[in-house]
Design a protein that fits this description.
Blueprint (H helix, E strand, L loop, with lengths): L2 H9 L4 H16 L11 H18 L3 H31 L5 H26 L17 E3 L15 H14 L5 E3 L2 H29 L2
Antiparallel strand pairs: 1-2
């Protein structure tokens, strides 16, 4: 593969992986009917469906209003997932009896949804979004990927969705930055929010589910 073709492929940042991530979160929520539900069960999938529609529209038209719509819907999904987690933790504190399999499904749903949604959020946020990230209109980076180091042999490299998905996954599993560092204050706050939710899910919901399954 020639260097020009490689650079063009690396600079391309299609929208379909983000759309696929939201669709996966939506399918996961629908495919796990045995969860413990303490808020209306339609809230999260409806918010995810709206986000999927917003991302499809985003591919056809780039504008400040489009980005505002995307961030608004992403915020709704994050808020719905956070409310679900908070209500589930409150349920566990108020109820001594619960089914381990239902709690496990609930924890997996919240955990995976958080990874996918924050991956889309990071992807949409960094350098002004996917449509301007690889152009002269790009803003300052919110995240520093190691491959962006000028000392590397790929100075024209730019992150794509899979890089933000990996960032979101490692932040949820390690509860801290790994090979990608947040640069802006908003990026640090968002990673803090995501790690806090993942920690609460793992420490309270999933650990309680495993404990019940072992008894």
């Amino acid at each position: 593969m020639s260097p020009d073709v490689e650079d063009r492929l690396e600079s391309d940042d299609p929208h379909w992986p983000a759309q696929a991530a939201i669709l996966a979160a939506l399918v996961l929520h629908i495919a796990l009917p045995g969860r413990v539900t303490v808020i209306p069960d339609w809230i999260v999938p409806v918010a995810e469906g709206l986000l999927l529609v917003a991302l499809v529209i985003a591919r056809r038209q780039e504008s400040p209003r489009r980005r505002l719509l995307a961030f608004t819907v992403i915020g709704l999904v994050v808020a719905a997932n956070t409310v679900t987690l908070g209500a589930l933790v409150n349920y566990l504190l108020d109820h001594q009896r619960a089914h381990g399999d239902s709690l496990l499904l609930s924890g997996v749903d919240i955990y995976v949804t958080g990874i996918l949604i924050f991956a889309v959020l990071f992807w949409e946020l960094d350098r002004g979004g996917p449509d301007v990230r690889n152009t002269a209109r790009a803003s300052r980076p919110d995240f520093f990927f190691q491959t962006m180091d000028p000392a590397t042999e790929r100075p024209r490299w730019r992150p794509v969705f899979v890089d933000y998905l990996y960032l979101s996954f490692t932040n949820c599993t390690a509860f801290s930055p790994t090979d990608t560092m947040p640069l802006s204050a908003r990026a640090k706050v968002l990673m803090l929010v995501e790690a806090t939710g993942a920690l609460a899910t793992a420490a309270v919901v999933l650990s309680r589910a495993v404990n019940l399954l072992g008894t």
